[in-house]
Amino acid sequence: MSSYSRVINHATSILCSNKGSLAFQQLYRKVFQRVEITEDDFWYIVKKCSRFVVVRNRERTDEWGTDCVIVAKTSLRLCKNYTKQDCRDCQELHLCKYFVYGNCRFGKGRKQCKFSHDVRSEHNYTLLRECTLHELHEDDLFLLLLQNDPTLLPEVKHIRTETNTQRIYSTGLSTTD
Ligand SMILES: [Zn+2]
Ligand SMILES: [Zn+2]
User: Fold this and answer.
1) Where would I find the C3H1-type domain in this sequence (predicted)?
2) CA of 112 to the centre of ligand 2 (A)
3) Boundary residue ending a domain (72, 102, 123)
4) Ligand 2 centroid to 78 CA: how many Å?
5) Fewest 10 Å CB contacts: which of 16, 121, 122, 159?
6) In this structure, are strands 52-56 and 68-72 parallel, antiparallel, or unpaired?
7) 66-109 residue pLDDT tens
8) What is the pTM of this model?
9) Residue 64's pLDDT is what?
């Protein structure tokens, strides 16, 4: 594991705790508080690493470069067949989607949810490790998943607050081009 992976992990959790995106300069400053890295090296990582998408900040300038917004990205998805109890082995997370939304009615009270709330189950944790997302805080991970999976978004709309939804929805769109 290189120091690059440390930078990537750290930057990912910073982005997630800032609703999934930040201006490059802001992100760099926050990363630098924990990891010593030059701005050029950090820019290189952000451009090369599939974890990040660089989005041009059109309102402020036409130039590429450090005046860009960085969005966290992952190809990891929630398994759609899991809740139909129709999946044995796949490369997607087996989790209750309402748990990921943060509004599952079960799990905390007397009634157990029939779907997994366990990010660290053998199936899930193996996938998270492969994507090097296993060190992320649960809330950060869920934000990353919601932001990156367009099929989850329409339902998020009803659940999250208006401003939050719009933010997630618009950054979700900008990662697809
Ligand atoms: Zn599955
Ligand atoms: Zn549940």
Assistant:
1) 95-120
2) 8
3) 72
4) 13
5) 122
6) antiparallel
7) 678 999 999 999 999 998 888 978 999 999 999 998 889 887 66
8) 0.75
9) 55
Q: Are strands 21-23 and 52-56 parallel, antiparallel or unpaired?
A: unpaired
pLDDT digits (tens, 9 = 90+) for 130-153: 998 998 999 999 999 998 887 775
Same domain assignment for residues 86 and 170: yes
Asked if 41 and 99 sit in the same domain, the reply is: no
What does the alpha-carbon distance between residue 149 and residue 74 come to, in Å, rounded to a whole number? 9
Residues 100 and 155 in one domain: yes
CA of residue 140 to ligand 1 center, whole Å: 22
* Closest ligand to Cα 123: 1
Between the alpha carbon of residue 74 and those of residues 50, 96, 111, 132, 147, the distances in Å are 8, 19, 32, 10, 9
pLDDT, tens only, 23-68: 999 999 999 999 999 999 999 999 999 999 998 766 655 555 567 8
Domain-embedded: residue 77: no
Asked if residues 20 and 71 have their Cβ atoms less than 8 Å apart, the reply is yes
Confidence at residue 60, expressed as pLDDT on a 0 to 100 scale: 56
> Which structural domain, as residue segments, surrounds residue 104?
82-174
- Residue 88 Cα to ligand 1 midpoint, Å, equals 6
Three-state secondary structure of 63-113: CCCCCEEEEECCCCCECCCHHHCCCCCCCCECCCHHHHHCCCCCCCCCCCC
Distance (angstroms) between ligand 2 centre and the Cα of 90 equals: 20
